[in-house]
Amino acid sequence: MKKIKLFSFLYCYVIIATFLGAQQKGIIKLTSKDIEINLDSAKMGLSISNFWKYKSGDSFGWASPEYVHEDWDTLRSNFNIDSIPQNTWTGIGWFRLRILVDSSLKNQTIAFLLLQNGASEIYLDGQLIKKFGTVASGDKEVTYNPRKIPFGVHFDEKDSHLIAIRYSNSNYLDYLKIFNLYNELPGFSLRIAELDEAVTALDRSDVINTIVQISLSGVIFALGLIHLLIYSFHHKDKANFHYSLFAFAFTLMLVEGTFNRFLTQNIYYIILSIFNTIIILILFLFLTRFLYTIYYGKVIRFFWLLVFLSVVDVLTGFILRNEFVFFSFMLSVVVLSLVEGMRIVVLGIKHKRTGAWIIGTGFSGFFLLVAFVLVVNFLGNAKVVSLEWLLVILYSGFLSIPLSMSIYLARSFALTNKNLEIKLLEVKQLSEKTIEQERKEAEINLLREKEQLQLKESEIRAEALEKENERKAKELEQARQIQLSMLPRSVSENIVFSNSQ
Fold it and tell me: Is residue 219 domain-shared with residue 158, that is, in the same domain?
């Protein structure tokens, strides 16, 4: 039994050593099993970025399969400019790799998927089979990034094939002086996969990404526009304004991601990367500002710290061009914004602030979904979730925060209207009571005025009656005097005397 184990170990050792030795000499063995595509596990064929033979310069004789490249350097095709010796990459060079194929790949057409920032010409056994851009030095170069769009390569009956790639990215060294922080690796990445499955995978990925990104950007933009209109009619509610700014920044980030997938020129990708970096910083600043508005009603000093770090981050990128410092500041702004957001939400829930649980749910959903995607991507387990569902979950995580914020504002707006209706009802009831009271007081006053009027009328009638009596008495007296004046004096005196008695 021990001999069998020892023999197995020696056999595996010889096979592995032979395989690695072959790869170190610019040779790689390839079987149909290696290039299989499994969409559920996100396995997209075989990447062959390692073990290329490389030589700086340019000569079309280097495409020939008879040319001996044993004295060439071994270099990764997606090399990092900072990790290779100086003057290794001068702007143009050739990469060569010999592929040993088994019987399962003979007379088969397979897919090559290329990702690059420069220009390339691909040769198979000395014959040009594909070119992307114009390979040249200086201003004559035209870069083109095929973005892993598969193209077919036919393997004939031969046991081995030579892949030679004439590659240039001379503009990279110029871009490096200005856009050091925003440029990707200067080389290329080549992947070999099944042709039909590669085309299917590309089509499914494009459909999912395009539909989801456009749909999300449209929904979030509409929400931002609605809340901006609400703010325009009610300026006192600043939360709607800050949310609209956050939504517009989020929309720009999604739109940038959509356009980025269709860019082929490196310079446009660099400009878009600079724009995306600034948008990410603005996005998280608006997010924090919104939370301060709804929970504090004002800006606290920590917000200005985030603004300061963002400004320093941008200045570092354009002036110092220090990659470590730049990404450290950028990451610090993002992490501090998320941590501060969770702190505010937790305090709001703890103090039972209205609607705090809605924002808390959005933040929690974002963290959980993104963490889930990272774990699944790290494990690469097909049994957990398929690639399509992984993308849907990832975008749902991005949507959870703006959606929860919009729900919070909508609920706040609804509660405000409900409270306003209650207040209006109370005012209506109070007004009715006031009107009824005023009506009763008016009736009482009217009765009082009527009584006073009647009393005055009685006084006037009594006064008039008294005057009438006085007038009549006066007239009687005058008549008696007249009568007395008409009688003889003796009779009148007797009458007067008798009247006096």
Answer: no
**Is 363 inside any structural domain?**
yes
**pLDDT tens column, 349-394:** 888 777 778 877 877 777 777 666 656 655 654 445 555 566 666 6
Strands (E), 151-237: 151-155, 160-168, 188-194
CATH number of the domain within which 329 lies: 1.20.1070
Structural domain ending residue among the three candidates 419, 444, 471: 419
Residue 143's CB: how many other CB atoms inside 10 A?
23
Residues 151 and 217 in one domain: no
Confidence of residue 190 (pLDDT cuts 50, 70, 90): very high
Is residue 426 situated within a structural domain? no
Paired strand residues for 30: 101
Which two structure tokens, joined as six digits, stand for 166? 């004439």
d(CA 117, CA 119): 7
DSSP 8-class letter at 297? S
On whether residue 170 sits in a domain, the answer given is: yes
Residue 5, pLDDT above cutoff 50: no
Question: Can you give the pTM of this predicted structure?
Answer: 0.64
- Residue 322: predicted pLDDT: 63
- The residues, ordered by sequence, that sit 6+ positions from 18 with a Cβ below 8 Å of its Cβ are none
Query: How many whole angstroms separate alpha carbon 447 and alpha carbon 456?
Result: 14
Query: How far, in Å, CA of 348 to CA of 294, rounded?
Result: 10
Q: What range does the domain containing 70 cover?
A: 25-199
Euclidean distance between CA atoms 232 and 348, whole angstroms? 27
Which among 204, 211, 104 is positioned nearest to 150, based on CA atoms?
204
| Residues 279/256, Cβ–Cβ less than 8 Å | yes
Q: How far apart are the C-alpha atoms of 319 and 113, rounded to whole Å?
A: 36
pLDDT digits 0-9 by tens, 42-77: 567 888 888 899 999 999 999 999 998 888 989 999
Find the mean pLDDT for residues 248-270.
77
| One domain, residues 132 and 228 | no
180 and 310 assigned to the same domain: no
